[in-house]
Amino acid sequence: MKHSLARWYSLGVGGVGIGLLILASLGIDWDTHGLPLLLFTALSLIIKRLGFHVFEDIGRTTAPDPRRQLADTTHWLGGMIDLAALLVYGSVVGAWVAALSSFLYLLFRRPWGAWRAPQRRETALFNAGLKALMGLI
After folding, report:
1. pLDDT digits (tens, 9 = 90+) for 44-94
2. What band does 14 get if pLDDT is binned at 50, 70 and 90?
3. What's the CA gap between 48 and 67, in Å, rounded?
4. Pair 130, 17: CB distance under 8 Å
5. CA-CA distance, 19 to 99, in Å (whole number)?
6. What's the pTM value of the predicted model, to 2 decimals?
7. Quick one: which of 19, 37, 89, 119 has the fewest CB in 10 Å?
8. d(Cα 29, Cα 102) in Å, to the nearest integer?
């Protein structure tokens, strides 16, 4: 019960955030904002990918040597790119940059084939919806 409630919450936040972002972007001129959206999204993805691991996770047993397995916690400045897009292009385009870069990064950051896991898609949708809501508010 607790797991399904958390699942519905993450799907709800993601769906509401993306839905409101789509509704807010109906009046946007995509001819002028399309290329900056793609450039800022690509830059944010590159910066997020170049993030470095903050600490080692000693408790993992999936690696051959559990003491050397890196944690999923990374330090990166991708949020600064998202904030710059919000300040330069406004809340709707900036929210698209933050939502798209977050969704794509979380969906494809693992080795090939790992994107099929439902939890990965839910986490990516939740984070994208949350970033969209934060950008719109």
Report:
1. 988 888 876 565 555 555 555 544 555 555 667 778 888 999 999 999 999
2. very high
3. 25
4. yes
5. 12
6. 0.78
7. 119
8. 23
Nearest to 128 by CA among 1, 35, 10: 10
For the chain, the C-alpha Rg in angstroms (whole number) is 17
Indicate the pLDDT class of residue 123, thresholds 50, 70 and 90. Answer: confident
Residue recorded with tokens 């950051």? 109
Spatial CB neighbours of 120, under 8 Å, sequence gap ≥ 6: 106, 107, 110, 114
Residues constituting the chain: 137
Residue 72 CB contacts under 8 Å (≥ 6 apart), including other chains:
57
| Structure confidence by residue, pLDDT tens digits, 98-118 | 999 999 988 877 655 555 677
**φ, ψ dihedrals at 99, nearest 5°:** -70, -45
Give the residue carrying structure tokens 């993992």. 60
Sign of CA dihedral 132, 128, 94, 25: negative
**Cα 69 from Cα 86, distance rounded (Å):** 36
The amino acid sitting at 58 is: I
